[in-house]
Design a protein that fits this description.
This protein has 734 residues and is of the alpha+beta class. It is built from 28 helices and 8 strands. Strand 5 and strand 6 (450-459) form a beta hairpin. Helix 5 packs antiparallel against helix 8 and helix 8 runs antiparallel to helix 12 (304-318). The radius of gyration is 25 Å and the shape is globular. Residues 2-18, 20-44 and 728-732 have low confidence and may be disordered. InterPro entries: M3A_DCP (IPR034005), MetalloPept_cat_dom_sf (IPR024079), Neurolysin/TOP_dom2 (IPR024077), Neurolysin/TOP_N (IPR024080), Pept_M3A_M3B (IPR045090), Pept_M3A_M3B_dom (IPR001567). Residues 1-22 form the signal peptide. Residues 272-719 form the Peptidase M3A/M3B catalytic domain. This is M3 family peptidase.
Length: 734
């Protein structure tokens, strides 16, 4: 039984900044058994063999065969098959042991997992009105099916027997870890509850699944429904050619050729707020974006949030935990909400202090220009860019012509070769779910061994959720023969005209490398059991490999070779690289406060217990108490916080990015203390101790094996340009 029950929308997805990932502790958005007559329909015809996709490379997702109206039948048939497989394990007359129970469990549900993967891809990337109708129906069914599995008493008794047997000591360390994983998952999902509590747990999970689906569909609806149409040249004032071209393409795609459209996604919003000199339009674009899910209409999410919080609090109490936050963090690296809060609070105050400095600098520029304004949230990026230029002689418009999406992709491949020995070759013999998607085979450079496939879906389109993320379509495993992984990276860049280079911002380039870090984590996996493979690790550890890879974007080797001017083909000038390095900690106050305010509100919402919460008021009051600068809003306001309210995925867990970044900053110093970013010995140690081991070892042990010690907060503070605290203040960092 792989992570199929723990992935948002059925796919192991990791989404950046965010990277909303699914972890072993996340509940699914979906679920319950279908009637037997429906389940008996020909649903699993997409599989050449039970649980196996057809085609080359050990099988590939059969996208060409997928029809939205067949999802219910296919999944229902797969559910029935999975039931039979689990019942065979539970009713086995032989005494429970690792092979006939836990290994058998790993081998069960393969067809169901693959159907859920296809379903999840449609939910995140091709969410048409027809699919959304199916999604609303399937959400509670999936949840009920999950509870049916975890409440299978016969199955749990066998798992418990293996876990508590003295013979467990004879198992390999990986097998012992797998026994722990399955046992704790079942217990944390209610396997030990009495019948009445189990029934209530099931009702809670089914209701939550429906609420999650509604929440995500509402946000997607607002992203597609609210745009800003630019009618004339005057509306384009200040915008560079690349932003104009993307806006023109967006308008043409919506049947408004000759106009320009700023869509309601981060990749469209951020460059507009950075460059547009039309303050009135900046405010309009900004309000569209920050009010997603909060417009008082049929897609408003404010009624969903308190119900979700109440249900989560009740579920936690049923399971014996003080709050949902305590339940979620029990098996994370942080272990307790208190430790996570301590880290966040240690960073919050210096970040806010830095924001005050940044705002003062921006206000001086505005006053010097006689703008007659006080900096507002829709002004922050615009004036920050002016300050960057004044302080560091660095203009993002000067950098962006060198940041071609395709060249940066080539740079990522080169880095993967240098650090992990991977080689990427494009393939065209596999189906894709959209013409924008391309596929590469990944091999080991030294041996030529096939490692896996990498799918790339870079562009925004209607029906695709915003942000960026990584998917694992298939986990690596070897306990019943070698099975290679299939991963994807998904972004929302604005597609330009045919033949034109797609230019992206430095922040988007960092996100591109971040998501590729998740992909490399999956591709590097070398374990036996799929439930332990790749990115199937603790929530506050999974962002560590991805955030770490961001550091390689700014290395001279990447910039000199792959940051090429889209018109001249010349490499980025060394003087410009030097200015980029000099400005490395610029605007860190904004970036940290924008993110950390969301993480603190998330944690405080889930520490509040079962009290009735008005989402808007709680957000406002909490930020006021924290001293949130009025010039900034949360990166994800509560009514659009899909990481937290579109699944359990990051609930009480958005702190994970900061926790992981403490590891990231310390780990990269491991390279710089050696021979530099491409130190082969350090890279091999990183691969061996972190990237390849999945969840076969405790993450804290894995990190110590790589670094020789625990990480502290000092490297993080240096990375962000904040004052390094006294040792007495850092006693319980990671």
């Amino acid at each position: 039984m792989r992570n199929l029950f723990f992935a948002s929308a059925g796919v192991a997805a990791l989404v950046s900044s965010g990277c909303a990932t699914t972890s072993p502790e996340a509940r699914p958005e979906v679920a319950a058994p279908a009637p037997t007559s429906e389940a008996a329909a020909p649903g699993a015809a997409r599989m050449a063999l039970p649980g196996k996709w057809p085609g080359p490379y050990g099988g590939v997702p059969p996208f060409a065969q997928v029809k939205v109206d067949n999802f219910k039948l296919a999944i229902s048939a797969a559910m029935d098959q999975y039931r039979r497989e689990l019942d065979a394990i539970a009713s086995n007359p032989a005494a429970p042991d690792f092979e006939n129970t836990l290994a058998a469990l790993e081998d069960a549900g393969r067809t169901y997992a693959k159907e859920r993967t296809l379903y999840g891809i449609w939910g995140s990337s091709l969410s048409s009105p027809e699919f959304q109708a199916v999604e609303r129906e399937m959400a509670p069914r999936f949840a009920a099916f999950e509870d049916e599995v975890f409440q299978n008493e016969g199955l749990f008794r066998r798992i418990e027997a293996v876990y508590q047997s003295p013979d467990k000591a004879k198992l390999t360390p990986e097998q012992q870890r797998l026994a722990w994983l399955h046992y704790t998952r079942f217990v944390r999902s209610g396997a030990k509850l009495d019948a009445a509590a189990k029934a209530r747990m099931g009702a809670i999970n089914q209701r939550l699944a429906s609420l999650y689906t509604s929440f995500s569909q509402h946000v997607l609806g607002d992203e597609e429904g609210y745009t800003v149409v630019l009618e004339s040249e005057a509306d384009l004032a200040g915008l560079p050619d690349s932003v104009r071209a993307g806006a023109a393409a967006a308008a043409e795609a919506r049947g408004q050729k000759g106009k320009w459209i700023i869509t309601n996604t981060r990749s469209s919003m951020e460059p507009f707020l950075t460059y547009s000199s039309r303050r009135d339009l900046r405010e309009k674009v900004w309000r569209n974006y920050v009010n997603r899910g909060d417009n008082g209409d049929a897609r408003d999410n404010n009624a969903i949030i308190p119900e979700v919080l109440k249900l989560r609090a009740e579920r936690a109490k049923l399971l014996g935990y003080a709050t949902h936050a305590h339940w979620r963090l029990e098996n994370a690296m942080a272990r307790t909400p208190e430790r996570a809060m301590e880290l966040m609070e240690a960073v919050w105050k210096p970040a806010v202090a830095r924001v005050r400095e940044e705002v003062a600098d921006m206000q001086k520029v505005a006053d010097k220009e006689r703008a007659k304004l006080k900096i507002e949230p829709w002004d922050y990026r615009f004036y920050a860019e002016k300050v960057r230029k004044a302080k560091y002689d660095l203009d993002q418009n000067e950098v962006k012509p060198y940041l071609q999406l395709e060249k940066l992709r080539e740079g990522m491949f080169w880095v993967a070769g240098e650090l992990f020995g991977f080689a990427f070759t494009p393939v065209t013999d596999v189906p894709v779910y959209h013409p924008d998607v391309r596929v590469w085979e990944v091999k080991d450079q030294a041996s030529g061994r096939h490692v896996g496939l990498w799918y790339f879906d870079p562009y925004a389109r209607p029906g695709k959720r915003s942000g960026a993320w990584m998917n694992a379509y298939r986990n690596q495993e070897r306990f019943k023969g070698e099975v290679t992984t299939i991963v994807s990276n998904n972004s929302n860049f604005v597609k330009g005209a045919p033949g034109e280079a797609v230019l992206i911002s430095w922040e988007d380039a960092s996100t591109l490398f971040h998501e590729f870090g998740h992909a490399l984590h999956g591709l590097s996996s070398s374990v036996s059991y799929p439930s332990l493979a790749g990115t199937s690790v603790a929530r506050d550890y999974v962002e560590f490999p991805s955030q770490l890879l961001e550091h390689w974007l700014s290395t001279p080797q990447v910039l000199n070779t792959f940051a090429l001017h889209y018109q001249t083909g010349k490499p980025i000038p060394q003087a410009l690289v030097a200015r980029i390095e000099k400005a490395a900690t610029f605007n860190q106050g904004f970036g940290t406060v924008e993110y950390l305010s969301s993480a603190l509100v998330d944690m405080k919402l889930h520490l509040a217990g079962d009290v009735s919460i008005d989402a808007d008021a709680f957000e406002r009051d909490t930020l006021n108490a924290l001293g949130m600068p009025k010039e900034i809003v949360m990166r994800h306001r509560t009514p659009q916080f899909g990481h937290v309210f579109a699944s359990d995925g990051y609930s009480a867990g958005y702190y994970s990015y900061l926790w992981s970044d403490t590891l990231t900053a310390d780990a990269f110093e491991g390279f710089t203390e050696g021979k530099g970013a491409y130190d082969k010995a350090v890279a091999e140690k990183l691969r061996k101790s972190v990237f390849s081991v999945g969840n076969t070892v405790d993450p804290a042990e894995g990190y110590r094996a790589f670094r020789g010690r625990d990480a502290g907060i000092n490297a993080l503070m240096r990375k962000r340009g904040f004052p390094v605290p006294a040792a007495a203040q850092t006693k319980s960092q990671p």
